[in-house]
Amino acid sequence: MSEMPRDAGTLKFPSLSPAKESPPSPFYTMLESAPPDYLTQRDEPGNFSPTFPVYNFFYGTLTDPAQLSRILDLSEEPQLREAEVFGYAVARWGDYPALINSKQGDVVTGRAYLLRSAEEAQKLASYETNAYEVADCWIYFKDGREPAEAGGKVFVYAGDARALLEQRFDRKLWSRQMGRKLG
């Protein structure tokens, strides 16, 4: 059996700079100067619960308790908590708000609800349609209660955010929505 080289556990980046005379992009420069363990490090907490209960952050129509109650078929009004998430922005997708990735300091305010089951999560996913996808997020609660923050889930726009912002046809979302119907 051959022995692994001593530096086998260290990631090495090949030169990513373009061969032509133009300056490399800032992203390539950043990767070339990054420490060897850069891709395995996390900048924010990563303790996201894969099981239930789990908080879900809402920023649009689902911040209305009556709407959420109707969708989840709850017998009583849901307890929503004032909250915010960072690194996102809200754009308009027709009449609907759509959460998109944004700059690290950007904040979206809304409400969070503690989902109790996979059945509740499925009902929300059906309501949101495949125009949105579930993503992990870190939720900061603004109501002074505990927990003050928690890992959770959020629905983000599944299409091309740039096309959404530029109000152009979104081929990525169209394909996602039509893919199952085209056969």
Automatic annotation (TrEMBL):
InterPro entries: AIG2-like (IPR045038), AIG2-like_dom (IPR009288), GGCT-like (IPR013024), GGCT-like_sf (IPR036568). The keyword Iron-sulfur does not apply. Residues 57-174 form the Gamma-glutamylcyclotransferase AIG2-like domain. Keywords: Transferase. It holds the Pfam family GGACT. One of its GO terms (molecular function) is transferase activity. SUPFAM superfamilies: Gamma-glutamyl cyclotransferase-like. Residues 1-45 are annotated as: Disordered. Belongs to the gamma-glutamylcyclotransferase family. PANTHER family: AIG2-LIKE PROTEIN D (PTHR31544), GAMMA-GLUTAMYLCYCLOTRANSFERASE-RELATED (PTHR31544:SF4). This is Putative gamma-glutamylcyclotransferase. The lineage of its organism: Eukaryota, Fungi, Dikarya, Ascomycota, Pezizomycotina.
